[in-house]
Amino acid sequence: MARFEPTPTARVRERAILVGADFGRNPDWTLDESMGELERLAETDGADVVLTLTQRLDAPVPRTFIGKGKVEELVSHVRNLDANVVIFDDELTPSQQSNLERIVGDPVKIIDRTALILDIFGVHATTREGRLQVQLAQLQYVLPRLRGMWSHLVGEQTRGGIGSRFGQGESQLEVDRRLVRKRISTLRSELARLETRREVQSKARWDSGVYRVALAGYTNAGKSTLLNALTGSDVYVRDELFATLDPTTRSIELEEGRKITLTDTVGFIQKLPITLVEAFKSTLSEVCAADLILLVADASDSGVERQIRAVRSVLDEMGAGQIPSVLVLNKCDLLSHEALAGLRARHPDAVTVSAREETGLAGLLYRVAHEASRGDDTLTVLVPFSKGILMRMVHERCQVLREVYTERGLLATVSASERMRSTLAPYVVPDDAIGPAGRTPPTPRP
Q: What does the alpha-carbon distance between residue 267 and residue 283 come to, in Å, rounded to a whole number?
């Protein structure tokens, strides 16, 4: 027998009880659907759901959110099922959370949907900006819920000795709150600097004339898989909610020769916490700065119509509702022919694809090319050989209809966007400068 028993290092999955209330306020999103999504969130965060409790209420009970009888039932189930976490589908007030923790007792944790999503974001954020955004949202959520839990943040002031008597009369809780507010201020300053850098990069892409496409949609709709299929990238993909948080941009060249960028952004969800919307403002700004939005939806999901409406509602709230968009119905390989035909009938302008099977991608790229050239106009330009960068931009940012190299430079007829037309304005020549079959008419002698 071994002298020392090995200590297991694998993470033990928690046993969770889900609690929801039906207030009858949202006919498009039933309680069962909301609880099903909450279960997916809990599983994503490493918990096993052992029970779901629901109650019909006119309004939340001020003291415990749910009724007294339902609280007693919850306590009984916690004991009998050996649950160690209770997750509410709606956000709890600090007093409701405190009261429930006292009634249920230690060591059972009482959290709500907001805290659960924040925890998932904390695990999945990988870039510096993403981690800072998650920290900011977590601290904004924790601040009104502080109950002396941050004593480890306090320094020498509360340990006694020289200098410890400054600020006497200030309670531990007040010190904790002040430290959290200071950290929030620091995070906001750091994010503001990163946002300034992002704006400079975004302006550089605007000035370059690159057509920008953003992928937006409900979480787990397959946006990252679609980005990989279109660009040949290897962005992290997994069948779970919020698998990727940080925006990822890749470039791709369309068949006509125009280069565009595709940006994958954080997925949306029902009841997305307002603290997250505020914290991820700079990330979501990638959507607002796009020339075209690909609204990606999971065609195989029974609630696809509600998800589409939810995403469009969030885009409107963000101020991106006026940006041209194309509905992309993904995962169509999981549908029967009859179901797919019905979906196409309801959304005749949508593009149906399967990112996993890489079907329908040619049609999607054709649609993107059509949207990219919607505001284009035709002009003929003569670009001197000394403007090598501009020549490259002509080939990458425009659709070249005809071209010929002359002694003076590149003479080309192109279809160009408004930004490129502005860039090329000093080099515009008459449209007949290029003759038939690409021949340049001789220069008349005086």
A: 11
pLDDT in tens, 231-290: 887 654 454 455 455 567 888 888 877 788 888 877 777 777 666 666 566 556 678 888
Would you give the DSSP letter of residue 201?
A: H
C-alpha distances in Å from residue 2, one per residue of 5, 6, 173, 289? 7, 9, 47, 62
The whole-angstrom separation of Cα 108 and Cα 385 is 73
| Residue for token pair 């609880």 | 35
| C-alpha of 399 from chain center | 31
DSSP readout, 264-308? E-PPB-TT--HHHHHHTHHHHHHHHT-SEEEEEEETTSTTHHHHH
**Is-contact 368 292, C-beta < 8 A?**
yes
The closest of 420, 436, 440 to 208, measured between CA atoms, is 420
Output the six-digit token pair for 58: 């006119």
* Cα end-to-end span (Å), the chain: 107
Q: What average pLDDT does range 116-123 have in this prediction?
A: 82
Q: Which residue has the higher pLDDT, 237 or 11?
A: 11
Give the whole-angstrom CA distance, residue 99 versus residue 96: 5
For 340, list phi and psi in degrees, rounded to 5: -65, -40
Please indicate, yes or no, whether the overall pTM of this predicted structure exceeds 0.85. no
Query: What is the Rg, in whole angstroms, of the alpha carbon atoms belonging to the chain?
Result: 28
Beta-sheet strands, E only, within 144-242: 211-217
